[in-house]
Amino acid sequence: MTAHATHRAIEAVWRIESARIIAGVARLVRDVGLAEELAQDALVAALEHWPRDGLPDNPGAWLMATAKHRALDRLRQLSMQQRKHEELGADADALGAHVTPDFVDALDAARQDDIGDDLLKLIFTACHPVLPTEARVALTLRLLGGLSTAEIARAFLTSEPTVAQRIVRAKRALTAARVPFEVPAADARAERLDSVFDVLYLIYNEGYAATAGDDWMRPALCDEAIRLARVLAGLVPNESEAHGLSALMELQSSRAHARIDTNGHPVLLRDQDRSRWDPLLIRRGLAALARAEALADAGAGWGPYALQAAIAACHARATRSGDTDWQRIVQLYDALLEAAPSPVVALNRAVAVGMASGPAAAWPLVEALASQPAMAAYPWFYSAQGELLAQMGRRAQARAAFEHAASLTRNGRDRAVLLARAEDLSDPYIQ
């Protein structure tokens, strides 16, 4: 294998294994920042040895063992430093009681291989509420996604120094707050798990509908979020929302190939060629949704991600746009408004009402949201207005609504779609 091929193989192994390695080491050292540093040391060792010696039979195990050896070496050093601070004549038993248990615990932990539990601890740590949202996202992508600082910066159109600073501050904040490397107790788990769901969906949504820039989608972010959601659903199999989140991502991503035409232009949902939707992702999404539904009906209750997945399933099950069960979608939005009320959910429900019952039924619902501060700079509020106005024959007002929507978006592809819609409504004879 050439040196270039070896380096590519190392990159691939690291992307797959890094989260497990960091999690395994964090169990020993109880510090996520130090764990990442030691895991990186193992990666450097691989870059030194593998081009010369060839890839080991089990690259992931090699990296894990090397990182754990580095961790134990660090613990030995700390233990020796503690001993040096003891008085030379200290009682040996007292010294052992002071120093040895931590090291013995670390050795016992090193012999264990509870990777699933370690990954769950790492997810909860990276998404801890003590961190601001931006820091949770960056740290999650770094520790669990294996993305480099440059990749994270490129995905979110942020400078590398900014992302690097967020990650460094996040690790320092976790250390300063003495956030334990553990799955929180049952009474705190729901709140923390909700934070994990929100971070993963924020990562996914930025990939599926980029906030800014020239790309309509960033597939790499979607792929990472889906992978992490699958891992999480496997780690907490009795959580309905974990399966709901995974289902939502799978079902939305099934449309990815149909969302852009051969010229790279965006294609809206109603105009998509549904034969291009990915049947495997649809099957996986519907299977995950079935698990979420079973748990919800068994007593867990319906959460917002399971409800959104059920809405996505209504689209996935319709072979043609005209076959979509909009009445069912309205009912699901009613439940979603109760579970997670927000102006955006209310707007989406109004759009669904328009599809189910016509623009006249939807228009008062949309107009009622005009006073909501969140709608003032939300381009899709004005886009929804434009669609309803166009359907009601008020073309000049519709065109103005689409133009205003275009002025608010920071994504170049979204802007082009909205301006094209406004252009379709142009008429020199309309005042």
Description:
GO terms for molecular function: DNA binding; sigma factor activity. One of its GO terms (biological process) is DNA-templated transcription initiation. It comes from Aquincola agrisoli. The chain is mostly helical and 431 residues long. Among the domains are: 111 residues, no CATH class; 45 residues, no CATH class; 55 residues, no CATH class. Helix content is 72%, strand content 1%. A two-stranded parallel ribbon has the order 1-2. The chain starts with a helix and ends in a 7-residue tail after the last helix. About 7% of the residues have low confidence.
**Count of strand segments:** 2
H/E series:
HHHHHHHHHEHHHHHHHHHEH
- How many helices? 19
By helix and strand content, what is the structural category? mainly alpha
Integer average pLDDT: 85
Q: Roughly how many Å apart are the termini? A: 70 Å
* Helix residue percentage: over 70%
Strand proportion, as a percent range, falls in: under 5%
> How would a textbook summarize the main sheet?
2 strands, parallel
Which strand order spans the largest sheet, edge to edge or round the barrel? 1-2
Could you list the spans in which at least 5 consecutive residues all have pLDDT below 50?
87-115
Q: What is the radius of gyration computed over CA atoms, rounded to a whole number of angstroms?
A: 26 Å
| Shape call | elongated
